[in-house]
Specification:
The chain is built from one helix and 25 strands. The chain is mainly beta. It folds into two domains: 176 residues, Immunoglobulin-like (Sandwich), CATH 2.60.40.2230; 122 residues, PCu(A)C copper chaperone (Immunoglobulin-like, Sandwich), CATH 2.60.40.1890. Strands 15, 16, 17, 18, 19, 20, 21, 22, 23, 24 and 25 form an eleven-stranded mixed beta sheet that branches. The protein has a six-stranded antiparallel beta sheet with strand order 1-8-9-6-12-13, with no helix packed on it. Strand 16 and strand 17 form a beta hairpin. The radius of gyration is 21 Å and the shape is globular. It holds the Pfam family PCuAC. Keywords: Signal. This is DUF1775 domain-containing protein.
Length: 331
């Protein structure tokens, strides 16, 4: 029995220049520790004989469980559920079913660029030294198709195959507590996302953790994130944002509507209730920089002016972190 959860997203796709048109689809970091949660980034290096990739399908092997894909602006997302062959422990709860295939659909990744497709999951019941293969299929415009689905038999070098499935080598179990730190690093949280340590105060409001991400070639918009805490006894509203390096800055929200996750513009602003903390983050509330004068570059800063209904205006600088998970490289 399989069920499908669909999420439709709007926005832009992110791409980087491709180094080798004949490279295989691989993982940016081809290892994952046993009995640990990891974030894996599938690198799609090219299209189908020059055609743009419009769909990426990844089958999850037995032993890679509790999977959660990362939404991609500009792509729809399908999570196909199915039964596991074994029972797995999830913090004391036995689990016998979960995601078995992830599909990013109706996007547009030109052959001239490459991109990454990110999944978080746990390796469980697989011994160190073993390999987990993730058969992957690219669908392209005008019926093009590339299948990376050949799984090497034990003892066979996968590089000898014409179309090897992307694979992870399972490494020994991490010391207690280290898996969460490693996952955060690979997900681009920690050092990979250099959130500002500055505390910006405006009346009763306290703004922390500001950051954005580098924009990749072909990406027309950028996101902006921070946390605001209202220490006062009066509700406030973030009504607008502006930046000298963007034509407009819009306030957006990504939220579930039935079984579909949609992005919508918040024309009435973002409420900052008294005594509460509101976080702008990827996949939730966020700023969207439109018509930027130049792509954001890692290591730089993006200036923005925030206007609150009651507190007034404040200047903020967003450090620019890398656009992809730590370790992602061209093939």
């Amino acid at each position: 029995m399989k069920t499908i959860t669909k999420l439709a997203l709007s926005g832009a796709f992110a791409t980087v220049s491709m180094a080798n048109a004949h490279a295989h689809a691989t993982f940016a970091n081809p290892t994952a520790a046993e009995e640990a949660t990891s974030v894996i980034a599938l690198q799609v290096p090219h299209g189908c004989d020059g055609k743009a990739t419009t769909e990426v399908q990844v089958k999850l092997p037995e032993g890679f469980v509790f999977a959660k894909p990362q939404p991609k602006p500009g792509w729809e997302l399908e999570v196909i559920q199915g039964n596991y062959a074994k029972t797995y422990d999830n913090h004391g709860k036995p689990v016998t079913a979960g995601p078995v295939e992830i599909r990013w659909k109706n996007g547009n990744l030109p052959d001239a660029f490459y991109d990454t497709f990110v999944i978080q999951g746990k390796v469980s019941g697989i011994a160190a030294g073993k390999t987990l293969a993730f058969p992957t299929t690219q669908l392209c415009s005008t019926d093009g198709k590339v299948a990376w689905d050949q799984v090497a038999a034990e003892g066979v070098d996968p590089h000898s195959l014409k179309s090897p499935a992307p694979a992870l080598t399972v490494t020994p179990k991490m010391p207690a507590g280290h898996d969460h730190a490693a996952m955060a690093m690979m997900a681009g949280n920690g050092a990979a996302n250099p959130a500002s340590t500055a505390v910006v105060k405006l009346g009763d409001l306290e703004i922390t953790g500001a950051f954005t991400k580098a924009m990749l070639p072909g990406q027309p918009v950028g996101g902006g994130y921070f946390t605001v805490k209202n220490n006062g006894q009066t509700d406030d509203v973030l009504v607008s944002a502006t930046s000298p390096i963007a034509g407009t800055v819009e306030l957006h929200e990504m939220a579930m509507q039935g079984e579909v996750m949609k992005m919508r513009r918040l024309d009435t602003g973002i409420a900052i209730p008294a005594g509460k903390t509101v976080e702008l983050k990827p996949g939730g509330l966020h700023m969207m920089f439109m018509k930027v004068t130049a792509p954001f570059k890692a290591g730089g800063e993006v200036p923005v002016t925030l206007t609150f209904e009651k507190a007034g205006k404040v200047e903020l600088k967003l450090p620019v972190g890398p656009s992809a998970p730590s370790g992602v490289q061209n093939n």
